[in-house]
Design a protein that fits this description.
The chain is extended. By secondary structure, it is of the alpha+beta class. 50% of the residues lie in helices and 7% in strands. It folds into 3 domains: 145 residues, no CATH class; 145 residues, no CATH class; 69 residues, Arc Repressor Mutant, subunit A, CATH 1.10.10. Helix 21 crosses helix 22. A hairpin with a 2-residue loop joins strand 5 and strand 6. The termini are far apart. The strands form 3 sheets. It has a 4-stranded mixed sheet with strand order 3-2-5-6, sandwiched between helices.
């Protein structure tokens, strides 16, 4: 073994802090970006929010563009001016340092002479938040069931068992435990609550009659049976639920009729009655809050042209706080700390501005390539992949992927995710390729217009699409149908 030196040339990608920050911001959604910026405002004292009124691009951008096209003078917000260079606030000469000094003794003296602020000094007519706005979370099915249990005459052991049952409900409202067979769930919970298994079964029957009826059932048969008994349905309904749910799901009414010795009309009537029952008792008690989508960019049509306007509503306008110019005087450690914060603030402002410009460029390129979609509709959506946009604007495909992830665009055709416009191509006879999304919509239109008593099979859909020059396999039609959450022809067929 020996030590020796040697020279070697190699190319290596260095992930600088600036590049890491730019990549991180680029793939964030709009809400995540706003939250990240506000967090940085709290942690970085050098950054501050510009409180000056600025015109909102999201709401007024279309009017601005319209006025500009009409020939009227328009003043748009100068975004470049809002992005201030942090290096401009770093004192460089001794004269600047002396000019920026602050008389802290006089400042503190004036501050101490001010009277205390009264705690009751708020405006009497100020709007206070309503009660709903003060809730940390909305009430769900668990809270509702616990309230009903408290209103019942359960003893202490039974209440413990009830809480265990409620805590083991899944999103459907069924009583389940991971790795435990349905028949063993109640005995296991009864042992934990220190209650006899027979008493636990009785308590479970009471819980299943809570609102919503059928909650805490162990499977769909028990759920429907509880509801049928609660609503006083006849014996035929109970027999079909207990023995023929698989046949009912396949709509094999003939087998049910033959097995039970009743007419098809009676089976149809029972099937319609069972269809009115709720197989998922927790359906109306979802604890998930509604997710509202705010577009990142707007596409406005003015005349025959499309204009791209980014949505800056709610986005804090950042600038460098001038106060910290004087804080670097005379203290080396303070100067180093503030200079680091200045660099961090400068990187953030530049990265946000670069993110905005990149989204604008990608959206503009998408609009140009998919102009037929914006003019005529989804039937004219063209096949497009990430490489098409990447080559057009001179960026890498991974960058385009980050730009289009969790970004939404508001267009005259509606609100779409940017990834919606990327589709694989399907060949058509003697015509240009068609986007896969257009094929899905064609399948959806055919099914919506079909006779419900004689629905089209997947093979029939293949033949109908072939008449329009769209040649695809039956399994592809089945895959697209499932992606659209459309049932097979046997399950779409209506008998009554």
């Amino acid at each position: 073994m020996e030590l020796k030196q040697q020279l070697k040339m190699a190319q290596q990608l260095v992930m600088t802090p600036q590049l890491q920050l730019a990549i991180k911001l680029l793939q964030m959604s709009r809400l995540e970006l706003v939250e990240s910026v506000r967090q940085e405002l709290m942690e970085n004292p050098v950054l501050e929010e510009d409180s000056r009124d600025q015109v909102s691009d999201g709401e007024n951008g279309g009017a601005q563009v319209a006025s500009e096209v009409a020939g009227e003078p328009v003043t748009l917000p100068d975004r470049e001016a809002a992005t201030e260079d942090a290096s401009a606030y770093l004192p460089s000469t001794p004269e600047e340092k002396r000019a920026s000094e602050i008389d802290w003794e006089r400042y503190l003296e004036n501050h101490t002479m001010q009277g205390p602020i009264s705690g009751s000094g708020y405006r009497a007519n100020e709007d206070l938040p309503n009660y709903e706005a003060t809730l940390t979370r909305s009430g769900g099915l668990s809270e509702y069931l616990k309230w009903q249990a408290q209103m019942s005459d359960f003893v202490e052991e039974e209440l413990r068992f009830t809480e265990l049952v409620i805590g083991n409900l899944d999103e459907r409202g069924y009583l389940t435990m991971e790795g435990v067979a349905p028949a063993d769930v109640v005995p296991k919970l009864a042992a934990e609550a220190e209650i006899h298994p027979e008493d636990a079964e009785e308590v479970l029957k009471i819980i299943q009659r809570f609102d919503p009826v059928g909650v805490a059932s162990r499977d769909i048969i028990e759920c429907l049976m509880v509801q049928a008994l609660h609503f006083g349905m006849d014996q035929l309904v109970l027999d079909i639920i207990a023995k023929h749910i698989p046949d009912l799901e396949k709509r094999d009414y003939a087998t049910i009729s033959k097995a039970l010795g009743v007419s098809l009309e009676e089976v149809y009537d029972v099937a319609q009655a069972i269809a009115d029952l709720e197989p998922r008792p927790a359906r109306g008690y979802s604890s998930e809050d509604a997710q509202y989508i705010t577009p990142d960019v707007y596409v406005h049509k003015v005349g025959d042209e499309y204009y791209i306007v980014t949505n800056d509503d709610g986005m804090p306008k950042l600038r460098i706080c001038r106060f910290y110019r004087a804080a670097m005087m005379g203290d080396k450690e303070a100067k180093e700390y503030i200079q680091n914060k200045l660099r961090s603030a400068q990187w953030l402002i530049r990265s946000i501005d670069q993110r905005r410009k990149t989204i604008e460029r990608v959206t503009e390129c998408i609009v140009n390539k998919q102009r037929d979609f914006f003019e005529k509709g989804i039937e004219y959506l063209k096949p497009m992949i990430l490489r098409d946009i990447a080559e057009e604007i001179g960026m890498h495909e991974s960058t385009i992927s980050r730009v289009t992830s969790n970004k939404y665009v508001h267009t005259p055709r509606g609100l779409f995710e940017l990834k919606f416009f990327f589709n694989s191509g399907i060949r058509r006879a003697s015509q240009e390729d068609i986007a896969s999304e257009s094929v899905k919509q064609a399948i959806k239109r055919i099914i919506e217009a079909e006779d419900p008593n004689r629905p089209f099979s997947d093979q029939a859909l293949v033949e109908l699409l072939a008449k329009d020059g769209i040649v695809i396999a039956r399994r592809t039609v089945a895959k697209y149908r499932e992606m659209l959450n459309l049932l097979s022809s046997s399950k779409r067929k209506k008998y009554f």
